[in-house]
Specification:
7 helices; alpha/beta; globular; 22% strand; seven-stranded mixed sheet; two-stranded antiparallel ribbon
């Protein structure tokens, strides 16, 4: 009988979150009475597809995260591992991959998800993972609702790309370990997401329809919107 393909979650949470303002980092801001990252971890655990969950935290915050998050909210769940992250999201993910190197099969699926996308659904996580198992690389994305303008350094419109050919990338983004490892090892510059690194190697990345509720909490407005979504889910019993 073939061995079951392992699936590991990487949750980068070492960013400073400067655009949100205030002294508390985004993953630890309260959302409906709990830190944002707790909602994210709960959603990922509920998907019931991950054998391991690696959380990449700011170096020096490991003890805090273990005590205030893992023990307080998850009873010290042994599937959650805390790993020191880096100065950038890309560096944090690479550090997570280094922690896994030699401890996972090359065919294992690595699922990278933003720590501050707490409204992710089990269904979407499962779909992106399933697509990555079939094709090696997949990500969630939604069609753009606004027209996009390409502008030059003088803030003058250069081009209006066809909106129908554009999507807004989200997370989760999932890849076979060997593919994501090679992409990070070859990375010469910083990229805004992991899929971009994989694309630069010429690998195809499949798109899975995402959700407009799967927002990334970047500003204080996003936090208010997330509160409304959660209140609606509670009312509907979702």
């Amino acid at each position: 009988m073939p061995q079951k393909q392992e699936c590991v979650l990487l949750l980068p949470a070492a960013g400073q979150g400067l655009r949100m303002g205030g002294d508390i980092k985004k993953p630890y801001l309260l959302l409906a009475g709990k830190p944002v990252i707790v909602h994210t971890l709960e959603a990922c655990l509920a998907a019931n597809i991950f054998t391991r969950l690696l959380v990449l935290v700011t170096p020096g915050e490991e003890i805090y995260f273990e005590k205030e998050i893992c023990k307080h909210y998850f009873n010290g769940n042994q599937s959650i591992t805390i790993v020191p992250g880096g100065t950038s999201r890309q560096d944090s993910v690479f550090r997570g991959l280094k922690a896994l190197y030699g401890n996972v099969d090359n065919e294992a699926i690595i699922c990278v998800h933003d720590a501050v996308r707490p409204l992710i659904s089990s269904f979407l996580l499962q779909r992106v993972v399933a697509e990555a198992k079939r094709f090696g690389a997949a990500l969630a994305a939604v069609p753009l609702t606004d027209t996009v303008k390409l502008v030059d350094k003088y803030n003058t419109v250069v081009e209006t790309p066809l909106r129908e050919a554009l999507v807004a990338a989200q997370t989760p983004q999932c890849f076979k370990f060997s593919l994501l490892w090679e992409a990070h090892c070859q990375a010469a510059v910083q990229a805004s997401d992991d899929a971009a690194l994989v694309e630069r190697m010429g690998a195809a990345v499949r798109i899975v329809p995402g959700s407009y509720e799967n927002i990334k909490l970047t500003t204080s407005h996003d936090l208010k919107v997330a509160e409304l979504y959660l209140a609606h889910r509670l009312k509907e019993g979702v």
